[in-house]
Amino acid sequence: MIRVDFAKLRILVVDDNAHMRRIVRTLLHGYGSREVYEAEDGAAGLEMFTTHLPDIIIVDWAMPIFDGVELTRMIRRPDSGMNPYVPIIMLTGHSEKSRVIRARDAGVTEFLCKPISAKALHQRLLNCVLNPRPFIKTRDYFGPDRRRSISTTYNGPERRTKDDAYVQDAAQLRLRESVVS
């Protein structure tokens, strides 16, 4: 049986609601996480990201200064000097299909709707660690592969071209190796 040692993970929770941050922190501590950092808006989240170098980020959509989608775009810029490969879980009350697509297109790794359950959050965290998604670099996108399954017969307008590149970062593999037993 595969076990994830959550005590070895550094997790950043970015949400403007102090009550929601406390709920998420309590759940994370229940899984065994000890290094849980919190930020109350996108700007503070970006600062905490560069300071603490978290292994996973949990971010809300609607926040002051800049929102979770803007924060994700800033982190996903490969030329930013930060770790653009960090898994990002969008935890939000906005579950409309258009918002899920916008989050995915910004580079969010996993999407989770409020109200959350302990099981759903745990599953998203496990997905980030045990099944790291390959990254795609195209002319206008850099982030986790937006497709959950690959179809060799798809010929539509969103078909990948020869110019699209899969990018695998060794940090994703090291994260898995460091916490899985």
- Calculate the mean pLDDT score and round it: 87
Largest sheet: spatial strand order? 2-1-3-4-5
Considering DSSP H and I runs of 4 or more, what fraction of the residues is helical?
Answer: 25-40%
Q: SSE order in H/E notation? A: EHEHEHEHEHEEEH
Domain Response regulatory: 10-129
Keywords: Phosphoprotein
Pfam families: Response_reg
Modified residues (4-aspartylphosphate): 60
Give the arrangement of secondary structure elements:
Blueprint lengths: L9 E5 L3 H14 L3 E5 L2 H11 L3 E4 L8 H9 L11 E5 L4 H10 L3 E4 L4 H13 L4 E3 L4 E3 L20 E3 L2 H10 L2
Parallel strand pairs: 1-2, 1-3, 3-4, 4-5
Antiparallel strand pairs: 6-7, 6-8
Notes on the structure:
The protein is 37% helix and 18% strand. With 181 residues, it is an alpha/beta fold. The strands form 2 sheets. Strands 2-1-3-4-5 form a 5-stranded parallel sheet, with helices on both faces. Strands 7-6-8 form a 3-stranded antiparallel sheet, with no helix packed on it. Helix 2 (42-52) runs parallel beside helix 3 (68-76).
Task: Provide tags for this entry.
181 residues; alpha/beta; five-stranded parallel beta sheet; three-stranded antiparallel beta sheet; 8 strands
Question: Summarize this, please?
Answer:
The chain is an alpha/beta fold. The chain has six helices and eight strands, in the order βαβαβαβαβαβββα. The strands form two sheets. It has a five-stranded parallel β-sheet with strand order 2-1-3-4-5, with helices on both faces. Strands 7-6-8 form a three-stranded antiparallel β-sheet, with no helix packed on it.
